């Protein structure tokens, strides 16, 4: 049973179509991410749900109620902005109390709730601070407390980590997820950062050019991307162009030019023999060995470049007329390769995914 | 760290200040003269012309007339200017730039043109407000509102609209969100604009020349009329009071704004 439902939503700004015919269903309690490059329509989608933008066509339902044309204050949806939007003329206490005051609660109830909210986000004792006296991470906590204290039906997060430095971002990623899980609130998270989306989400919608390209769990999105764009946008990817040679239940053979390799056939419509496809192999799925071992390799190639990256080594391997990126964990039991060395490339058949 | 200002720049700055302050100095000194006539340098110092100003019905009444007019103008110009600035910053309609230029045009147009145009309009339409305080009021509002639009527009340009959106999604109606969040955050611009409107109205000459009536003259017109017929230092003394009032109002606003900031900081520290 879907809780939030976008039905045929489009939004036109002048000549440009920011969002085009969007259909998304989100379940209650789900952590759902809208992921895509800037200008893909993810923020517009979020703003339509919040009530700041009215869709040109289509409807948005929450819990069976049509909210398409309701003003933001009638929606019971909380939003945390990219820049947090802490009211600079109010103390932390008054910021968090704002929504409760608007709900005409008594002073005593407000005090109790604000204190509980501050405690929840680990900011007790900061009641009298102003926005300019808070660090980025603290602003984030206050912004979240201000929203959670009104117990909205839905929580919207608009790129909440992009203003933080890398270390803080890693920390807040898990912290937000933890809070979300403990409150159990339906959450919609907008980001351009695929690693945030993969780490935090129950499901992800990948967007591009105002359209949803794929909706799925992080595993589905990463391991079975539905298109070249998704494959390239999510994580590192090697995409080898080839032609379908043979299809036999669930498996197929892809002709890459100098060699043909077995691969897993995509779900959905069956592949037709002879069609142009791409074979996706993630860099970490490839193993490098010396040539002339017993088992026949998928491909043979030559190391073009080696880059040291601390926890792993990254090789560029020339093979089948293309360059493949291979990541090898930096472990003493895995031999070092140097530029110019001839190598054999192996991967499990199911690690090669056909992308149309 | 000591900041070093190059000598030529320092000299230029000092000369610039002197050039701007000179007229004020001339007026103040001339108003404090002990002689019979408006001269500079003054012939001895005395407060006799200041006393004469304070005893003159004509000057005092025009001083308070100007003050009242400036306050009335300030109130309406602040409301209209703030509303116009808000509209200009939020509307997405085409022709917004042209509309802004139109709203700001009274600043660019010579005051004589506005004064004459309004005078001709009032007479032609037979509204019965030419040469009354109401007609004068309208002229002053027209002339001062652009200053409010300018300062409030600047405040809105740096105002983050997501603050208002945050207030809305926390349950505030458009009006409550404006009053509780937007207004406090652009209040500096509004205050600055209203002080501008007050000062501009208080010192306004050309528009007033066309629209004021002989029995209720704003101070600049009274000073001008008096100097036309008798070259008396009491006009300069009136000038001293005008300068004092304007300076005081600027300092006062400055003070109010700073005190508020100070309070916030203390609260936060405590």
Overview in brief:
The complex is a heterodimer of chains A (356) and B (270). By secondary structure, chain A is α+β, with helices and mostly antiparallel strands.
In the CATH hierarchy, the third-tier topology of the largest domain in chain A is known as Rossmann fold
> Rough shape of chain B?
globular
Supply the CATH architecture of the largest domain in chain A.
Answer: 3-Layer(aba) Sandwich
Q: Which percent bin holds the helix content of chain A?
A: 10-25%
Q: Work out the helicity level of chain B.
A: over 70%
Rg over C-alpha atoms of chain B, rounded to the nearest angstrom? 22 Å
Beta-strand segment tally of chain B: 0
Low-confidence stretches of chain B: 265-270
Features:
heterodimer, A: 356 residues, alpha+beta, Rossmann fold, OB fold (Dihydrolipoamide Acetyltransferase, E2P), six-stranded mixed sheet, five-stranded antiparallel sheet, elongated, B: 270 residues, mainly alpha, MetI-like fold, globular, disordered C terminus
Q: Can you offer a commentary on this structure?
A:
The complex is a heterodimer of chains A (356) and B (270). The mean pLDDT of chain A is 89. Chain A folds into 2 domains: 2-228, Rossmann fold; 236-355, OB fold (Dihydrolipoamide Acetyltransferase, E2P) (Beta Barrel). Chain A has a 6-stranded mixed sheet, sandwiched between helices. A 5-stranded antiparallel sheet of chain A has the order 13-12-11-14-20. In chain A, strands 15-19-16-17-18 form a 5-stranded antiparallel sheet, with no helix packed on it. The longest helix of chain A is centred in the middle third of the chain and has 18 residues, at 166-183. Chain A is 24% helix and 36% strand. Chain A is elongated, with a radius of gyration of 25 Å. With 356 residues, chain A is an alpha+beta fold. Chain B has a single domain (56-269), classed as MetI-like (MetI-like fold, Orthogonal Bundle). Chain B has helices at 7-31, 48-55, 57-90, 96-108, 111-125, 133-157, 162-169, 174-203, 206-211, 219-229, 234-269. Chain B is globular, with a radius of gyration of 22 Å. The relative contact order of chain B is 0.14.
């Amino acid at each position: 049973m879907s809780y939030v439902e976008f039905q045929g939503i489009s939004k036109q700004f002048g000549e440009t179509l920011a969002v085009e015919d969007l259909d998304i269903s989100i379940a209650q309690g789900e952590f759902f991410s809208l992921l895509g490059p800037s200008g893909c329509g993810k923020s517009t989608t979020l703003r339509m749900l919040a009530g700041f933008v009215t869709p040109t066509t289509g409807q948005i339902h929450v819990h069976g109620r049509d909210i398409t044309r309701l003003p933001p204050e009638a929606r019971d949806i909380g939003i945390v902005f990219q820049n947090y939007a802490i009211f600079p003329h109010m103390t932390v206490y008054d910021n968090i109390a704002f929504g409760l005051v608007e709900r005409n609660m008594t002073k005593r109830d407000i005090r109790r709730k604000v204190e509980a909210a501050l405690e929840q986000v680990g900011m007790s004792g900061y009641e009298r601070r102003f926005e300019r006296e808070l660090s980025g991470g603290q602003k984030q906590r206050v912004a979240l407390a201000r929203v959670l204290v009104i117990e909205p039906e839905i929580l919207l997060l608009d790129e909440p980590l992009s203003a933080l430095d890398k270390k803080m971002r890693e920390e807040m990623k898990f912290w937000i997820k933890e809070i979300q899980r403990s409150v159990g609130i339906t959450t919609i998270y907008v980001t351009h950062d695929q690693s945030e989306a993969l780490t935090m989400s129950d499901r992800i919608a990948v967007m591009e050019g105002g359209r949803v390209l794929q909706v799925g769990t992080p595993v589905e999105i990463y391991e079975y991307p539905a298109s070249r764009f998704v494959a390239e946008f999510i994580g590192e990817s090697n995409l080898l162009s080839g032609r379908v040679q043979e299809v036999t239940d669930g498996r197929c053979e892809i002709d890459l030019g100098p060699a043909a390799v077995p691969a897993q056939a995509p779900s959905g419509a069956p592949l037709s023999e002879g069609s142009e496809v791409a074979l996706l192999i993630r860099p970490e799925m490839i193993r490098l060995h010396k040539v002339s071992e017993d088992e026949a390799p998928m491909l043979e190639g030559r190391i073009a470049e080696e880059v040291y990256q601390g926890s792993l080594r990254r090789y560029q391997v020339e093979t089948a007329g293309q360059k493949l990126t291979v990541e090898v964990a930096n472990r003493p039991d895995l031999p070092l390769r140097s530029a110019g060395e001839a190598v054999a490339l192996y991967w499990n058949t199911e690690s090669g995914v056909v992308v149309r | 760290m000591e900041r070093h200002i190059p000598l030529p720049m320092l000299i230029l700055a000092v000369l610039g200040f002197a050039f701007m302050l000179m007229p004020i100095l001339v007026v103040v000194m001339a108003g404090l003269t002990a002689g019979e006539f408006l001269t500079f340098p003054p012939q001895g110092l005395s407060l006799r012309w200041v006393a004469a100003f304070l005893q003159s019905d004509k000057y005092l009444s025009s001083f308070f007339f100007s003050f009242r007019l400036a306050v009335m103008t300030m109130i309406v110009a602040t409301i209209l200017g703030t509303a116009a600035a808000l509209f200009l910053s939020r509307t997405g309609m085409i022709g917004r730039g042209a509309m802004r230029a139109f709203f700001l045009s009274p600043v660019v147009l010579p005051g004589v043109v506005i004064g004459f145009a309004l005078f001709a309009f009032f007479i032609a339409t037979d509204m019965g407000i030419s040469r009354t305080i109401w007609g004068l009021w309208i002229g002053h509002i027209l002339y001062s509102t652009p200053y409010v639009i300018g300062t409030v527009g600047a405040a809105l340009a740096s105002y983050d609209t997501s603050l208002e959106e945050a207030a809305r999604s926390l349950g505030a109606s458009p009006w409550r969100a404006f009053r509780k969040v937007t207004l406090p955050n652009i209040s500096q611009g509004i205050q600055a604009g209203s002080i501008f409107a007050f000062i501009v109205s208080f010192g306004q000459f050309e528009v007033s020349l066309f629209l004021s009536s002989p029995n209720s003259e704003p101070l600049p017109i009274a000073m001008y009329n008096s100097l036309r017929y008798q070259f008396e230092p009491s006009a300069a003394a009136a000038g001293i009071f005008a300068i004092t009032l304007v300076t005081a109002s600027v300092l006062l606003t400055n003070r109010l704004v700073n005190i508020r900031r100070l309070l916030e900081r203390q609260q936060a520290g405590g």
